[in-house]
Amino acid sequence: MTTAREVAYDVISAVRTSDAYANLLLPREIVRAGLTPGDAALATELTYGTLRRMGTYDAIIASAAGRPAVEIDPPVLDALRLGAHQVLATRVPAHAAVNETVELARQAAGRKITGFANAVMRRITERDEAAWLTRVEGKARSDDERLSIRFAHPVWVIRALRRALAAEDRADELHDLLAADNAAPQVTMTALPGLAEIPADAVRTTQSPIGFRLGGGDPERTVTASAGRIRVQDEGSQLAALALSRALPVRDGERWLDLCAAPGGKTAVLAAEAHANGAVLEANELSPARARLVRQSVAGVPGEVPVSEEDGRSRAGKGRYDRILVDAPCTGLGALRRRPESRWRKTPSDVPELSALQAELLAAAVEALAPGGIVAYVTCSPHLAETAGVVAEVERQFEGRIAQLDARAVVASVSVSPIDLPAQTDGSGRAQLWPHRHGTDAMSITLLQRT
Ligand SMILES: C[S@@+](CC[C@H](N)C(=O)[O-])C[C@H]1O[C@@H](n2cnc3c(N)ncnc32)[C@H](O)[C@@H]1O
After folding, report:
1. Ligand 1, atom 11: closest residue by C-alpha
2. What's the gap in Å between 285 CA and the centre of ligand 1?
3. What angle do CA 440, 14, 347 make, to 5 degrees?
4. Distance of alpha carbon 121 from alpha carbon 318, whole angstroms
5. What CATH architecture applies to the domain 4-140?
6. Which residues are the active-site ones (predicted)?
7. For position 220, what pLDDT does the model report?
8. Would 4-140 and 235-450 be classified into the same CATH topology?
9. 309 lines ligand 1 (CB under 6 A)
10. 330 catalytic per annotation
11. Ligand 1 pocket check for 262: Cβ under 6 Å
12. Fewer CB within 10 Å, N or C, the chain?
């Protein structure tokens, strides 16, 4: 029988050895192991917690082992990371965590490693997390490196997040943001507008008018029972889709396009909004496998949403549209809570490549707008190169032909209760959502209108 710890270990190993995504692999492994709901929750906490805080644990393990983490045999290091997480951040009894870790290390690397694994784990149990942090932070060479160890974010990500907060004069919120990135997000759901009701016993979200959280029970069961009209979706994604559909009153017969649609969460909201307001929606997704997810996502909405499988840069110009969503491929630095390993995988060199593609997708969308049409440029990254930088470049390209709408005012008008969206120091209308401030992914929303 496979235990919760073994499932967590296998997923953590697969993330390292085969670039697996924990959020996709873990649910499959939980089913395969036949874990009870309690053990499934434990496996999830252990996997996500260990992967998120890996940088911190590596510094602690290195100190306890007296050698850099990179010099430890990787399968053994994975076991120690999982062990450190249990000892320092969960209520798993220390002796159980030590024994299990030594056993995992033995299975991975043989008997000869048990003495080492045992010694490192015992040393880790000698201090609590706060004492370890004080000790390992003392070795940092800069303030950013200290933050990097304490909050388990790479230094370049910390700098990018600080700059994005400073762009709205809120750099003092950096610690809150980094802490929020390390907490498990609550499961938020959406009832597609006009097609499903928010359950009476649910807690409504305070910003999105179509969002809620279940008081208890299984979200998947609610989704299935609704025939796809209730979906799991971050509240920020709900606001981003509504910012486009509700920016201006909808005229009958408007044509809408979702240019980078998969897996289709925002497509489903747009499809429901289009259906309710007499507009027609088309969707597009480059990856055929992911385009299938988009088709599934709109299955619960009456009417047809054709889904093409093309490069958005050439697809956009095949029509004239009144509203286009460009929810562009991005670094995902705004969704670190959800994808625990991603912060360690992304590199600064991903940014220029992605921002070049983002600018091309946005330019193609602007080109395809009918007069008066609007494009919502959305990223689940707050990195300024992917947000303000891309928009500034496209504004230069289309000078005199596009105007920026006040996305902050639109999001505020959609929001159920007052929402804290400070002005951007660049004077733009961009709305930036944050995990620590809004409880959402860090979505950036810009609205551009063709004049
Ligand atoms: C951020 S995701 C979109 C999320 C989606 N809007 C949702 O809410 O579920 C970006 C998508 O763009 C797709 N993509 C990447 N390059 C593309 C391109 N050149 N043209 C169209 N889609 C692209 C990716 O496969 C990915 O599915």
Report:
1. 260
2. 6
3. 55
4. 60
5. Orthogonal Bundle (1.10)
6. 380
7. 86
8. no
9. no
10. no
11. yes
12. N
pLDDT tens-place string over residues 426-438 = 999 999 999 999 9
Residue 373 Cβ < 6 Å to ligand 1: no
**Of 4, 174, 380, 442, which is the active-site residue?**
380
Q: Is 262 annotated as a binding residue?
A: yes
Q: Is 65 annotated as a binding residue?
A: no
- CATH code of the domain made up of 235-450: 3.40.50.150
The answer to whether 265 is a known ligand-binding residue is yes
Domain boundaries, the chain: 4-140, 235-450
Nearest CA to ligand 1 atom 17: 286
Residue owning the nearest CA to atom 15 of ligand 1: 329
Residue 367 marked ligand-binding: no
**pLDDT tier, 215 (very low <50, low <70, confident <90, very high otherwise):** confident
In angstroms, what is the span from residue 359 Cα to ligand 1's centroid? 14
Tell me the pLDDT tens digit for each residue of 7-26.
999 999 999 999 999 999 99
